[in-house]
Amino acid sequence: MNQATALAHPNIALVKYWGKRASENNIPATPSLSITLDTLVTRTSVRESEQDQIEINGSVVSDTKIEDFLVRLRAAYSLPPLAIESSSNFPTSAGLASSASGFAGLLTAIDTAFGLDMNASERSIWARRGSGSAARSIFGGFASLEEENGHWCARGVLPREAWPLKVVIAITSETAKSVGSTAGMERSEKTSPYYGAWTESTRLDHAAGLSAVSRQDFSRLGSIAESSCLKMHALMLSSQPPLFYWNGATVETIAAVRELQGGGVRVFFTVDAGPQVKAICQENAASVVAERLASVPGVLRTLVCGLGPGAYVDQPG
Ligand code: 2P0
After folding, report:
1. Which CATH number fits domain 3-161: 3.30.830.10, 3.30.870.10, 3.30.230.10, 1.10.3720.10?
2. Above 70 in pLDDT, residue 97?
3. Helix/strand/coil (H, E, C) string of the chain?
4. What is the pLDDT of residues 27-63, one digit of tens each?
5. In the predicted structure, residue 317 carries a pLDDT above the cut 60
6. Residue 165 confidence (pLDDT) above 90
7. Per-residue pLDDT averaged across 148-168, rounded?
8. Residue ranges of the domains in the chain?
9. What integer is the mean pLDDT of 184-196?
10. Label partner for 209 (CA 20 to 30 A): which of 3, 13, 267, 275?
């Protein structure tokens, strides 16, 4: 029987994606730049079945994003009904990029199980059609999602071994977000007076971010990433009704990162569509950063990750 299991890690954008050029085929409005994590992982198995069934973290669910994705994939490839089982070792839908690792793993597992014979760029294009950020989780280390030859596709820009940064995640809430990314992006595009400025400045940040990564310039990358994050949240806050993803502990954690920076620690922060704070630091700063963030009132726990590989097939035995 055709079946396969794939492992995929979430990624954290340093230059953010928030807005689509076209919702059909899920084309981003701007390029983005990310790091793929280790430690946090989504394991996705697919096998031929009598009817489509989707099980996420042990519960059978109806998931329109996955169902729509299968419709599009079946328009291009002949696929039987599928039993899909996906589980993550971290909270889903809480700003930890579970859709990125979910779709990157799903596509990789389907590609293997049914011999679709896609290369990494093709898998990235298909993963993007499921969820924009998933295109980047096909690759490990530092990845850029950009347009090349008319295709929006991620590529690896620096392997993780070349610049082994650490990421300390401060979890401030385990609750799923109230407005998902797709609806949130649409709202920002339609209602924020800052949307045009956002897309313009993100293109510049992406080019500057790529250059900082190629030079391994930590200070420059940190200042680009913090600025991209804060501009994205300014865009969200200026949407109608406002998209407010932070809580009090999010702000306190950012203040703690800024205090560490003031003390000479090499660290910078980013926050996605959720209340968790990700502190990116140099390897030798990870323990001091983790200890400080764990002491912030409202931080429930911290996770320390390194940079991880792109999505891959789990070889049994
Ligand atoms: C990012 N995020 O670049 C940004 C920053 C969240 C905040 O990509 O609509 O779930 O499925 O393409 O990939 C989350 O958006 O959105 C995201 P869709 P996705 O990581």
Report:
1. 3.30.230.10
2. no
3. CCEEEEEECCEEEEECCCCEEECCCCEECCCEEEEEECCCCEEEEEEECCCCEEEECCEEECCHHHHHHHHHHHHHCCCCCEEEEEEECCCCCCCCCHHHHHHHHHHHHHHHHCCCCCCHHHHHHHHHHHCCCHHHHCCCCEEEEEEECCEEEEEEEECHHHCCCEEEEEECCCCCCCCCHHHHHHHHHHHCCCHHHHHHHHHHHHHHHHHHHHCCCHHHHHHHHHHHHHHHHHHHHCCCCCCCCCCHHHHHHHHHHHHHHHCCCCEEEEECCCCCEEEEECHHHHHHHHHHHHCCCCCCEEEEECECCCCEECCCC
4. 999 999 999 999 999 999 999 999 999 999 999 999 9
5. no
6. yes
7. 96
8. 3-161, 166-306
9. 98
10. 275
Mutate to test the pocket of ligand 1, among 42, 133, 239, 243 (most ligand atoms within 8 A of CB): 133
CA of 95 to the centre of ligand 1 (A): 9
Q: Quick one: 166-306 is in which CATH superfamily?
A: GHMP kinase, C-terminal domain (3.30.70.890)
Tell me which residue has its CA closest to atom 8 in ligand 1.
133
